[in-house]
Amino acid sequence: MSSGETFPMARAAKCPFAPAPALTRRPPVSRVRLWDGSEPWLITGYAEVRAVLADPRVSVDVAQPGFPHTNAVSKARDARMKTLMQMDPPEHTAQRRILAPEFTVRKMAALRPRVQEIVDDLLGQLLAGPSPADLVEAFALPLPSLVICELLGVPYADRGFFQNVARTLVMDDPDPARAVAASEELNAYLEDLAAAGPGLLGKLSGSMPPREIAVLGQLLLVAGHDTTAAMIALGTAVLLTHPEQFRASSADPTEELLRYLSITHTEARRVALADLEIGGQLIRAGEGIIAVKSTANRDPLAFPEPDRFDVRRPARHHVAFGYGRHLCLGAPLARLELEIAYSTLRRVPGLALAVPLDRLEFKENAIFYSVRELPVTWASTFTTVPPGSSTKNRRTPHDSSVSG
Asked: Is pTM, for the whole model, over 0.70?
């Protein structure tokens, strides 16, 4: 029943924000081929994806026979390190119960002033420098890196180390041994850091073994900055190519951008523990499943005119953060950072792409899809930081006496 197509599939150059055309042409449930010759089920419809993600007969345990490993690196790393994302109940339930109180909507809302301060300071430094500038390097990457470092208690001065590890881990085709070594090096660093007691890592030291804290810290640190950085950069590219919606609308674009974009190539991987039926198709116990959130979010049965970007669309029922018991724990934090980033960028006069969209280079061979660089320009007469920004380190492009 295989289509002969290999997953993941290439996106179309003419529409870099859309899922791969080969994905959107498929039926809601079909077979696909992976790098190792295995043929798991590919689930692309919205209702079918939600059904898979909510079904207790489906497992995320990478050690289960038939689990779909999308590349050699993920297979090698999964064999050495089991994170919250690869746990079934009751193990998953116990660990999530410890973490959930740290990522409530209320706790994240308390971080709003600090996140806004970080956004304002980064933009102030960007706008004080030369134009054009790379928004990825100056804003999209440091913002979530600073936030997650402060939350976990990781020194921001060490960002070069964990960002290099992240680059090794999220690429599709590096040497698996190198990826495992980088992961273990980061684990050792985080174990030492948790013992020192700062931030969330130190707070967990009394309730979890050091190795588990390190593995969890790696998941939060790598995913917590890389995914949000990708969304900030890619989302800003979308907004700048839809200036009428970016400028004229006061609607928060965050949920529509989460629906419209897809930053993952590996999607949600599962394996059936028992026979089940999805979309009228029988899936046998032991068969792998890949639930494609990007196509689910563009299913016309769930989102009319799904390929049209519309910031006013009621899109919060998207599955960008997953669904069911493995709904992303960090979703409240990601939403907070994205909403503040987009709303503050909207206030920068004349913000625009410095190059045509077709000249941007996209990360085609990475787990998290985004732009490598996002050159932007802004109004040359800009002399103040955006309204409502912090006064700390306030400066203008014409004030060379203020240091960075």
From this structure: yes
Measured between its terminal Cα atoms, the distance across the chain in Å is 59
- Strand, helix or coil for residue 341: helix
- Mean pLDDT calculated for residue range 83-101: 93
Kindly report the backbone phi and psi dihedral angles of residue 395, in degrees, each rounded to the nearest multiple of 5, phi listed first: -155, 170
Q: Which tokens belong to 391?
A: 């006064």
Where do the domains of the chain lie, and which CATH numbers do they carry?
A: 2-377 (1.10.630.10)
Contact 148, 220 (CB under 8 A): yes
Name the strand (E) or helix (H) holding 31: strand 29-33
Burial of 39 (0-12, 13-18, 19+ CB in 10 A): middle
Confidence band for 279, pLDDT divided at 50, 70 and 90: very high
Q: Which residues, 6 or more positions from 177, have their beta carbon under 8 angstroms from its beta carbon?
A: 76
- The answer to which of 71-80, 166-175, 323-332, 357-366 has the lowest mean pLDDT is 166-175
CB 232 within 8 A of CB 339: no
Amino acid 237: pLDDT: 96
CB 338 within 8 A of CB 254: yes
Q: What single string gives the DSSP state of each residue in 278-328?
A: ETTEEE-TT-EEEE-HHHHTT-TTTSSSTTS--TTS--TT--TT--GGGS-
Q: In terms of Cα–Cα distance, which of 231, 165, 173 is closest to 17? A: 231
- With cut-offs at 50, 70 and 90, classify the pLDDT of residue 81: confident
Report the DSSP beta bridge partners of residue 171.
366
Name the one residue in this structure whose structure tokens are 């992976």. 34
* More confident site: 261 or 224: 261
Neighbours of 3 (CB within 10 A): 16
**Burial of 331 per CB tally in 10 Å (0-12, 13-18, 19+):** middle
- Per-residue pLDDT band for 267 (boundaries 50, 70, 90) equals confident
Nearest to 291 by CA among 266, 314, 313: 266
d(CA 22, CA 292): 12
